[in-house]
């Protein structure tokens, strides 16, 4: 079988999680910082390590078949690619921010103002959608210092914690785009067998991340109440314990219901609750 190429970020905020995801999918490869390409030894795939800005176009043009890149970069490069899967990491928000003392209140107040950004394409679309005419000043880095230098009235930049905004005397003003890492493919090749196989593995890794394996002990008299709290993948496993009338219940629960469920289980008489990570969920 001839192999496919996947493009991932060479270094930066998406590199580590992209490599981790592929390794969790059972792929074995060397991850030398110096090499641009790495061959997976147990799956028909080659990995290209690139700057994130180049990934969307490489995938669109078929130089790489698939790629992992932030949605902000995909939108900014205006490429035509197929979205295979949202990956749940690299989450951030493209926001407009203004100086703390600014009197701008709503989007319409940006009319006639200057906004500095490294995302002119996305910002232009956003302003058009909101029917605002503003000057876009495109700068490639350190956008947040531009209002302080008198170069703009506002900025549009990626914000995750807001720390950088704060330390530059800026406050959030409007959300422009919520972004996360996306697995994309060249259009028209999404049904390729290798991609399907990889997608299946990725989905089972993502699903496992949201799942916990729980074991608990309970007196048989309380078993029905406990079982009603535990939907499980199909139905929970119940195993008798050496102690008379006690059983162990094994099941999986969703991470998001976790604390609420654990407290309810304890209240219903569950003891010795053990929670374990799940590596993969195959359905
Ligand atoms: P490259 O050298 O590959 O061009 P870069 O400096 O452009 O890297 P990074 O800062 O590594 O990019 O960010 C890569 C992606 O990570 C962003 O495009 C965005 O999708 C995502 N991301 C998540 N959180 C943040 C954040 N706090 N700031 C910037 N990007 C973030
Ligand atoms: Zn970049």
UniProtKB/TrEMBL annotation:
E.C. number: 2.4.2.17
Keywords: Amino-acid biosynthesis, ATP-binding, Cytoplasm, Glycosyltransferase, Histidine biosynthesis, Magnesium, Metal-binding, Nucleotide-binding, Transferase
Record GO cellular component, one term: cytoplasm
InterPro entries found in the cross-reference section: ATP-PRT_HisG_long, ATP_PRibTrfase_cat, ATP_PRibTrfase_CS, ATP_PRibTrfase_HisG, HisG_C, N-reg_PII-like_a/b, N-reg_PII/ATP_PRibTrfase_C
Residue ranges of every copy of the ATP phosphoribosyltransferase catalytic domain listed in the record: 51-203
A Pfam family annotated for this UniProt entry: HisG
The keyword Metal-binding belongs to this UniProt entry's keyword annotation: yes
Cofactor(s) this protein requires: Mg(2+)
GO annotation (BP), single: L-histidine biosynthetic process
Protein name: ATP phosphoribosyltransferase
Organism: Olivibacter domesticus (Pseudosphingobacterium domesticum)
């Amino acid at each position: 079988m001839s192999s496919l190429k996947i493009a991932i970020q060479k270094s930066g905020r998406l590199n580590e999680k992209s490599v981790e995801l592929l390794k969790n999918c059972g792929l074995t490869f060397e991850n030398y910082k110096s090499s641009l390409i790495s061959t997976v030894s147990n799956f028909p795939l080659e990995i290209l390590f690139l700057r994130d800005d180049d990934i969307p176009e490489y995938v669109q043009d078929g130089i790489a078949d698939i790629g992992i890149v932030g949605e902000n970069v995909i939108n900014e490069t205006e490429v035509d690619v197929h979205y295979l899967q949202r990956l749940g990491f690299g989450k951030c928000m493209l926001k407009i921010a203004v100086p703390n003392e600014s009197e701008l209140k709503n989007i319409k107040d940006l009319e006639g103002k200057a906004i500095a950004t490294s995302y002119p394409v996305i910002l232009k679309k956003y302003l058009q959608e909101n029917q605002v005419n503003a000057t876009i000043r495109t700068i490639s880095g350190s956008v947040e210092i531009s209002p302080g230098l008198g170069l703009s009235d506002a900025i549009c930049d990626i914000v995750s914690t807001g720390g950088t905004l704060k330390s530059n005397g800026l406050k959030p003003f409007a959300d422009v785009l919520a972004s996360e890492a996306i697995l994309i493919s060249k259009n028209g090749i999404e049904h390729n067998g290798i991609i399907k196989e990889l997608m299946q593995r990725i989905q089972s890794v993502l699903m496992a991340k949201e799942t916990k394996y729980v074991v608990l002990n309970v007196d048989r008299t309380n078993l029905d109440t406990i079982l009603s709290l535990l939907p499980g993948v199909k139905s929970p496993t119940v195993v008798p314990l050496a102690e008379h009338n006690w059983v162990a219940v094994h099941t999986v629960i969703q991470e998001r219901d976790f604390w609420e469920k654990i407290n309810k289980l304890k209240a219903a008489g569950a003891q010795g609750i053990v929670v374990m990570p799940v590596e993969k969920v195959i359905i």
